[in-house]
Design brief:
209 residues; Nucleotidyltransferase, domain 5; 40% helix
Length: 209
Amino acid sequence: MANASPPIHLHHDDLPEGLDLGTVVAIDTETMGLNPLRDRLCVVQLSAGDGEAHLVKIAHEAKPAPRLAALLADPKVEILFHFARFDLSVLSLNIGPIVGPIYCTKIASKLARTYTDRHGLADLVSESLGFSLSKAQQSSDWGHDSLSDEQIAYAASDVLYLHQIRERLDRMLEREGRMAEARACFDFLPVRCALDLNGFDHLDIFAHS
């Protein structure tokens, strides 16, 4: 799988009309930085778990993306993220609210894989699927008018394997009796993101002090 070249479809400003990605969609974002209130959204990548990836390049002057917004707002569609706390905030600010269920592989990993402190996507791919995932393009300029072949491949890799990783993490969560806690954390994510966007990102509101 690591050596194959998966089909990657590049779109501009919105998903194409008529595209059906099913009821569980892996989504990731690329931005100009890690501050959702400052750094603009540049790319949204999606996969139905079928070995194909769809990349939506967002122009500098952001335009409405009604088909992408409709996907996020569909209550029957579960959105699969890795580090949902960031991507959920970015998408909510720039595209529209996410209404359906949310799953975060980073949270699931932290609850299931308590034998390690390595919960990055590359770590999960290595352990779950047995190959190395390059992160060389992670800090590149995603705001450029065009994407390089390396950026396109990198962006696609962020969503192509999340369905498989989720299956393994679900088995581990069930085995360790932590699925209920994981689901409660996923359900809390919209509130956590709302707190972040309202200036409470560095404050632990549950702390005594």
